């Protein structure tokens, strides 16, 4: 894939859609394209985050084990990022990511992403906005789920 195409793919990610194209070109150049087959683990819960992944194609299952043994599951689809929250918060991975289908992703190293964020105040704002929306959606989903379980 050409660098120009990877820049366009990055533009589809909410975090990056308002970032200067020159900065996206640097990010695309510094990232590594990686492939996974169904069942491959991309990262495991508890791992130290060293990179985030931009999902170009395929589907990924995200699972988290709790002390009581229950697993919460969600799926990531193309044009989403995996593992960015832990990377930005400097915390261990909160979930395990496993490829459900053939997956193509861009692996962006921690230092590269943090450098881009520090050099681009607009991106800091966009990350905050997208993280707030993600948390709002997840909390709303949990509320619905607890309501349904209470009915049962």
Automatic annotation (TrEMBL):
Domain Cyclic nucleotide-binding: 15-117
Pfam families per the UniProt record, alphabetical: cNMP_binding
GO CC annotation: cytosol
InterPro entries: cNMP-bd_dom (IPR000595), cNMP-bd_dom_sf (IPR018490), Env_Response_Regulators (IPR050397), RmlC-like_jellyroll (IPR014710)
Residues of the signal peptide: none
GO MF term set: DNA-binding transcription factor activity
Protein name from the UniProt record: CRP-like cAMP-binding protein
UniProt organism field: Rhizobium rhizoryzae
């Amino acid at each position: 894939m050409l660098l120009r195409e990877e820049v366009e793919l990055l533009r589809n990610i909410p975090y990056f859609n308002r970032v200067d194209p020159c900065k996206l070109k640097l990010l695309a150049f510094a990232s590594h394209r990686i492939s996974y087959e169904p069942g491959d683990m991309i990262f495991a819960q508890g791992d130290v985050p060293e990179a985030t992944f931009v999902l170009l194609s395929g589907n990924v299952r995200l699972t988290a084990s709790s002390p009581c043994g229950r697993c919460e599951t969600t799926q990531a689809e193309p044009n989403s990022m995996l593992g960015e929250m832990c990377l930005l918060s400097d915390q261990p991975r909160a979930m395990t990511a496993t490829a459900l289908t053939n997956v193509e992703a861009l692996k962006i190293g921690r230092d590269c992403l943090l450098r881009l964020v520090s050099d681009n105040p607009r991106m800091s704002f966009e990350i905050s906005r997208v993280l707030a929306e993600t948390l709002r959606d997840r909390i709303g989903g949990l509320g619905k789920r607890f309501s349904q379980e209470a009915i049962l």
